[in-house]
Write a structure and sequence with these properties.
The chain has 206 residues and is mostly helical. The chain has helices at residues 20-31, 35-57, 60-77, 87-105, 126-144, 148-158, 164-171, 175-193, 199-204. The longest helix has 23 residues, at 35-57. It is globular, with a radius of gyration of 19 Å.
Length: 206
């Protein structure tokens, strides 16, 4: 099933509160197998999912692949979706899970602090580029090795750009638990990466 709609340059933003009733109707019709209703749902949220995936992967083609995977999963899972949780939060969780799966398979464009790596300039030193790629691989492995509750939480912050409150609502956990998980995840990442992520610390102790 192909879920990417035509004319994607004209993708709409996520719906406002006034569109809740229409969104609910589209969700219910999509869950019942209505392909046109699902196409409209994809149009509403394609940009959001692409942004989450692109922030994590740094390449539009990979982001498109992840978005395709996300909406296929959404389509299959819609019959079990309950309206007591905002659809946007539910979709964020599906997208974050798809992104972390992609990070296990492919090179991420992320760093430990800020979880985002800027592109190298054309005159960058080859050694700097190589070191950056080494860090990316190390971060990928470290993220993939995190316990799932840490990995899911930090993915929503780093790639979904959700606030603490939004993460709490998406995962249906207390705000304090969100803060604790994020701190724990970052602590584990730093422990596992060691001086790879902070080579200046090693230099200062030499």
């Amino acid at each position: 099933m192909t879920v990417t709609p035509s004319g994607m340059a004209k993708v709409q933003d996520a719906p406002s509160a006034e569109g809740d009733a229409e969104e609910r109707r589209l969700i219910d019709r999509s869950a019942a197998g209505d392909q046109e209703a699902f196409r409209q749902l994809v149009l509403r949220y394609h940009r959001l999912v692409i942004n989450v995936a692109y922030r994590a992967l740094g390449e539009l083609a990979l982001a498109e692949d992840v978005a395709q995977d996300v909406f296929i999963k959404v389509y299959k899972a819609l019959p079990g979706y309950r309206h007591d949780k905002p659809f946007k939060h539910w979709l964020h969780r599906v997208a974050a899970n798809a992104v972390t799966d992609a990070l296990r398979r492919r090179r991420p464009i992320v760093s430990l602090d800020g979880m985002e790596q800027p592109p190298a300039s054309s005159d960058s030193d080859p050694q700097d580029i190589s070191a950056r790629h080494d860090l990316q691989r190390a971060v990928r492995d470290a993220i993939a090795s995190l316990p799932s509750h840490y990995r899911d939480t930090i993915a929503l912050q780093a790639f979904g750009e959700l606030s603490y409150d939004e993460i709490a609502k998406t995962l249906d956990i207390p705000l304090g638990t969100v803060m604790s998980r994020l701190n724990g995840a970052k602590k584990l990442l730093r422990e596992r990466l060691g001086t790879i992520a902070h080579p200046e610390e090693e230099a200062n102790t030499a």
